[in-house]
Amino acid sequence: MRNWLLGLIAFIAASTVSAQEQQTLTLQQCIEIALKTHPLMKLSYRQLDAAVARSEQTKAQWLPELTFNGLQRRQGPTVSFTIPNPLTSVPTSIEIVKADMRTLSAEFRQSLLSFGRKSASIQSAVYQVRATSATVRAVQSQLILMVTEAYANVLAAQAMEEVAEQAVERVKVILKTAKARYEAGVAPKFDVLRAEAELAAAEEQLLTARNGVALAKAALNQLLGRPTNSPIELSPLPEPFEVDPSVLRSEPFIKQAFLNRPEMKASEWQIRSAEEFLKLAKADKNPLVLLTGSYVKQTKTGFAEDYQWGVNLVVQFPIFDSGRRESLAKERKATLEQALAQREQLERQIALEVEQAVRNFQVALQRLKTARAALVSAEEAFRLAQVRYEGGVGTQVEVWDAQVALTRARANEVQALYDAHKAFARLVHSTGLTEVEVKNLLKTLTVSNPANDGGEGR
Q1: pLDDT at 9
Q2: Domains of the chain by start residue, with CATH
Q3: Is the previous residue joined to 77 through a cis bond, with omega within 30 degrees of 0?
Q4: Among residues 316, 319, 317, 295, which one has the least CA distance to residue 307?
Q5: With contact defined as beta carbons under 8 Å apart, do 34 and 147 qualify?
Q6: d(Cα 287, Cα 379) in Å, to the nearest integer?
Q7: 92 φ, ψ to 5°?
Q8: pLDDT at residue 457, rounded to an integer
């Protein structure tokens, strides 16, 4: 009875796991899974943790510091001397160097005046944290794009598999018609042989399409941290956002990208950090005022009490360092100029990315519109060719031409559809905005576009 019960529990658990694996995932769910499990995110989070820790270290070096030290020392030879004692007539021995020495000390240190060092070092560390935080957001944005494209690739591969299956079914119908006409003596044997050959080719294309589905799912599973051969079902994507391609212009999107791309924010914080590092290098030539103090509890000797203390006001002023500080300032200035140059390069790169994204989205929308119109024509052409062939007034060549054209038109429509999805995802990524914000910007462009401006977006 117990074994039967354990077996039932195991079966239910296995069924639950299988049901979870077969759960239909949405794009948002896939993105959330990737953001939690992908090594790129783990790496960027650890880099942020390290930056925060360095910032805390920088702040701590300007705060009070208290150190305790303990020492047990055995030494030799001992040193002592005796003095007469008139009262007892017994000499008194006084040890100067004892065999055992114990020391317990407490040392205090606090910076009073740093003349710019403190603020510059702390601010540079804070800016580094902010730059790293922006870099984390950039990694998130890149990963979201990767998941979105992989998600679209799976749906596109599945749609291409469906196109291949439909092509096989159409060829089977043509083969059936060819056999019937051959048996009726109104068509040559060649029509049957041709149909059989076309069926074999269509089935081969179906195998290729199914392999494409498996590879696309493996790529998506890899991004989600799942075994590459795990079964996965995806929800369909909504229709691409409709907008007149002629109203698309790159300038508004480039402006938004400069303001919102996390890479730009990270670059700005890096520049500010470099500026503070330069200030720190220059401030290192200034004096430094410290307050130190100590209290020592020790073994009493003939010449020393069992404790001592002291408070010190220390002023450090650099006089000569063989040019080290001057070289450091030059290095920090070069680092700042390097950060400025990197920002300029980044601006150019982002402007190009946005320009490409806008144009690709524009072309994708136009391709989708054209592909859907061509698909309607191809479906009607195939229907007419098939009716003509079955009625004996058309040739099989017409049917094959129409079949090939229909398969190509459906494949083009699928490719154009998911290219439009991916082009929109790249537009969102390139601007640093959310999907809703990009749609609102597109609506704004549509509303503000002059009626007489029908030219292509620049």
Answers
A1: 46
A2: 38-71+96-448 (1.20.1600.10)
A3: yes
A4: 295
A5: yes
A6: 85
A7: -100, 130
A8: 38
Q: Which two tokens mark 344?
A: 């300029």
End-to-end CA distance of the chain: give it in Å, rounded. 77
Instruction: Write down the pLDDT at residue 103.
Output: 87
Query: Can you tell me whether residue 230 is helix, strand or coil?
Result: coil
In 3D, which of 437, 339, 348 has the Cα closest to residue 131? Answer: 339
State mean pLDDT over 104-119: 90
The CA distance from 369 to 361, in Å, is 12
Confidence (pLDDT) at 458 = 32
- Strand partners for 109: 65, 292
Map residue 353 onto helix, strand or coil.
helix
Query: What is the DSSP track for 236-266?
Result: PPPPPPP--GGG--HHHHHHHHHHH-HHHHH
CA distances to 105, 148, 327, 435 from 59, in Å? 26, 41, 25, 39
β-strand pairing of 65-74 with 100-113: antiparallel
Query: Residue 83 — pLDDT band, cuts 50, 70, 90?
Result: confident
Can you give the pLDDT at residue 147? Answer: 97
- How far from 392 is each of 175, 180, 181, 384, 396, CA to CA, in Å? 15, 12, 9, 12, 10
CA-based angle 23:10:217, to the nearest 5? 30
Q: Which helix (H) or strand (E) holds 438?
A: helix 435-448
Only one residue has tokens 């100029």, namely: 337
- H helix runs in 38-187, sequence order: 39-60, 117-183
Q: What is the DSSP letter of 86?
A: T
Q: What angle do CA 289, 291, 296 make, to 5 degrees?
A: 150
Q: Which two tokens stand for residue 64?
A: 């009070």
Residue type, 103: T
> What is the helix, strand, coil percentage profile of the chain, to 5?
65, 15, 20
The pLDDT value recorded for residue 3 is 52
Q: How far apart are CA 432 and CA 65, in angstroms?
A: 44
Cα separation, 304 vs 309, whole angstroms = 12
